[in-house]
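Q: Here's a chain of 140 amino acids. Please give me its 3D structure as tokens.
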Amino acid sequence: MRRGLMTYMQTPGASREHRVTLIPGDGIGPEVTNSVVQVVDQLKAPIRWDRFDGLSGAMPDGMPRLEVPAEVLDSIRKNKVCLKGTLFTPLSKKNTSTQSLNVQMRKDLELTVNLVHGFTLPGIPVRHEDLDIVVIRWDV
């Protein structure tokens, strides 16, 4: 079986640099987002990252972070694109009703839809061929 190659193909106007907000987050978030950054770098896509490496769902003392820092929200609003790892939500017997920073960010940015486009890539063996599906989840 022949294996396909992936490469970044520029479209007209694509050579200009794009700024993207990057929030590595907690848990496996930094590992996953760093892998994406490596792929983007290897493709030589014209992206400059606005990184927020220190943002966590918990404060250094373990208490939940109650709001998304304004500079993070400003960056997302300005760039209109964000790559975000998951943000941990600390819960305990004293703290069972904390709203996650993930939910808070969606509310602050007035995001109500989660859209995922899944599709198969030519040349990569998969269980289901010719898959092209969009899943839309309404978050309220």
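Q: Can you summarize the key feature?
A: The mean pLDDT is 84.
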